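FW: tagging you since you asked about this chain on Friday. Here's the raw sequence from the shared folder, copied in full. Didn't touch anything.
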Amino acid sequence: MADLLTFSRQEQRRPEPVLLADVVHEALAATRHKVRPGDTVETNVTADVPPVFGSPHALCQLVTNIIANALDAVALQE
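HL: got it, structure written out here
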């Protein structure tokens, strides 16, 4: 919904520093419902990864989509 509102308002957001560990943590929380019992999701984002500049929302959506696609692909292989 936020994407639709942003698109409809044509907002221009300035990139800001974003910690990838925070993005991955948020994306995992958003996709937790897709993890089937018995499956595990492993991450390896160390604390020394420097921030990246971008939109926190867009980066979280990107990582969420990658995780969701991976979970769907694993489910199809079984």
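FW: The mean pLDDT is 86.
HL: agreed, and The longest helix spans residues 56-77.
FW: great, closing this out.
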